[in-house]
Amino acid sequence: MDNESQYSGYSYKSGHSRGSPRDRRDRHRSKSRDGSRGDKSVTIQAPGEPLLDNESTRGDERDDNWGETTTVVTGTSEHSISHDDITRITKDMEDSAHLDCSRHLGVSLAGALALLSFLTPLAFMLLPQLLWREDLEPCGTPCEGLFISVAFKLLILLLGSWALFFRRPKAFFPRVFVFRALLMVLVFLLVVSYWLFYGVRILDSRDRNYQGIVQYAVSLVDALLFVHYLAVVLLELRQLQPQFTLKAVRSTDGASRFYNVGHLSIQRAAVWILENYYHDFPVYNPALLNLPKSVLSKKMSGFKVYSLGEENTTNNSTGQSRAVIAAAARRRDNSHNEYYYEEAEHERRVRKRRARLVVAVEEAFTHIKRLQEEDQKNPREIMDPREAAQAIFASMARAMQKYLRTTKQQPYHTMESILQHLEFCITHDMTPKAFLERYLSAGPTIQYHKDRWLAKQWTLVSEEPVTNGLKDGVVFVLKRQDFSLVVSTKKIPFFKLSEEFVDPKSHKFVMRLQSETSV
Amino acid sequence: MSLQRIEIHKLRQGDNLILGFSIGGGIDQDPAQNPFSEDKTDKGIYVTRVTEGGPAEVAGLQIGDKIMQVNGWDMTMVTHDQARKRLTKRNEEVVRLLVTRQSLQKAVQQSMMS
Questions:
Q1: Does the distance separating the beta carbons of B30 and A517 come in below 8 Å?
Q2: Residue A128 forms beta bridges with which residues?
Q3: A326-369 pLDDT tens trace
Q4: Rounded Cα–Cα distance for residues B22 and A328 (Å)
């Protein structure tokens, strides 16, 4: 049984598509670099790292005081990579090159099969015309009617296949998609059996009844349309009715959500969870994970236990550790007190900074207004949104920086990103409150700049084969390097709904003034 | 007016002390629905049911009795809930009721009229 499977979310065209392999590889290469950079959360800083790099846990000695100096930082810093990056990129590329081969195989196989099944009815109808035209019985209106129907059915089949299969897939799955493989086998068998019968009954014996041949071709097209219907039901409809509730919990901070899904395999359920993870869960902030050090430091000093004269070490060690734990539990521990006061203090600090930020932003927004048509203004005074944003940014920069630092959000928002957001808000006439909603609460991961936080490399860890369907009690884990999502399944219960009829005229009331109590 | 004094010893049943009868009436209740009262504006507390073999029956309480006092507390101008509370005090094992009965009332009235 395979316990661990890997997949990376590079986009590709599945099913019956034909894309050029070259630009697919180019896309993949640039994405692998971004993906690997986003994977890192704690790094060993090589010397000469740029100021506004994307990693978070270096603390306050990093020079991000752009609040004081409001010059714009150039963009060259973002593209430097360290030695770790290079080794990781090459490893990623090797892995995915290997996987790409198998994926290309699948795609090309499906494409070939689709082409074959489209051309087969046409071949059935054309071959007698080409090979023994003189012997064929003439066939007037019925054949023409059949020709038209074949043409339209093939057109419908083409449109339906385009709608169903020609889609940019959301993820690479570790195992083959069972239903798709099933459908491909079915189509293959169908086409092969039709060719067999055609070859034996019609080609060999040179059948002269052309109308019969055309009807044979039409029956194949009908069968293909029905297979397409089967594909719609299996791939799209079956999973729509909710059957299970999935609970996804992030291992580092306990953020959890519940989702309703239908009948899916484990790998498809994993992709569903990931799609919802990026817009439901607050962004992962490693700086917020640990209790402040002042609270924890007291726990470090423990008891020392000496054993006198005992030789049996194994028994002794467990006994020792138990004694230490018991003694530590009995000792009066005031760290909860410190935690409480630390929390209260932090809360107060955040609120104060937040108030200052809100006031600064409100004031900054009063300095500009939209140019009305009737205002006569000097052309030198008219600004575009970018310049307007830069003009008012200086007054709120310091308050913003202090607030972000207190809430440990400063790695997520560079000065450039704040300027861009300000420009965006000014362009769309948003109020200061709308501008601030992005900073006052930690939003979902997808809100932040794509290159940084959208790492697409996830690992699916599961005890059962990942093509198995979901069942009650299945647990699987979606791992990234710094955290993981633990997903557990529960079946939605079967509801017994019974009916009770209430006559609207039966609602009558009296005053309750005569009560009887037993004593 | 002729009155009866009735002394009931409460019976312990589990965690509760019960008296073995039911009361109805009170100043917050509707006096027109009282089947036992002579005067349909009387808002006093009446005995509506006496359980068989209970302490109340043993002590001689009868259905239709109007309770005037309980252990010295007046019951003629109380709400239904106040009446219940005065009868079911947890630290009292014995309650002394002052009751009046309709038959006696009638007899008294008749003797007064003649």
A1: no
A2: none
A3: 776 666 677 788 889 988 999 999 999 999 999 999 999 998 88
A4: 61
Residue of B nearest to A512 (CA): B29
Pairwise pLDDT comparison (A8 vs A205), residue with the higher score = A205
| pLDDT mean over A102-114 | 83
Q: Which residues of B50-82 are buried (b: 16+ CB within 10 A; e: fewer)?
A: beeebbbbebebbbbbbbbbbeeeebeebebeb
φ/ψ bin of A260: left (φ > 0), alpha (ψ from -120 to 50), beta (otherwise): beta
| DSSP three-state, residue A93 | helix
**Residue A378 forms contact with B (CB below 8 Å):** no
pLDDT digits (tens, 9 = 90+) for A145-180: 999 999 999 999 999 988 888 777 767 777 778 888
User: SS3 of A440, please?
Assistant: helix
Out of A511, A517, A518, the one facing B80 most closely (by C-beta) is A517
Interface of B with A (CB under 8 A): 18-19, 21-24, 28-30, 33-34, 48-49, 51, 80, 84, 87-88
| From A511, A513, A517, residue closest to B84, measured CB to CB | A517
Q: Residue written as tokens 């195992």?
A: A175
Q: State the pLDDT confidence band at B46, using cuts at 50, 70 and 90.
A: very high
Residue B37 has pLDDT above 80, yes or no: yes
Q: Is A516 on the interface with B (CB under 8 A)?
A: yes
Sort residue A254 into left (φ over 0), alpha (ψ -120 to 50) or beta: left
pLDDT at residue A203, as a whole number? 81
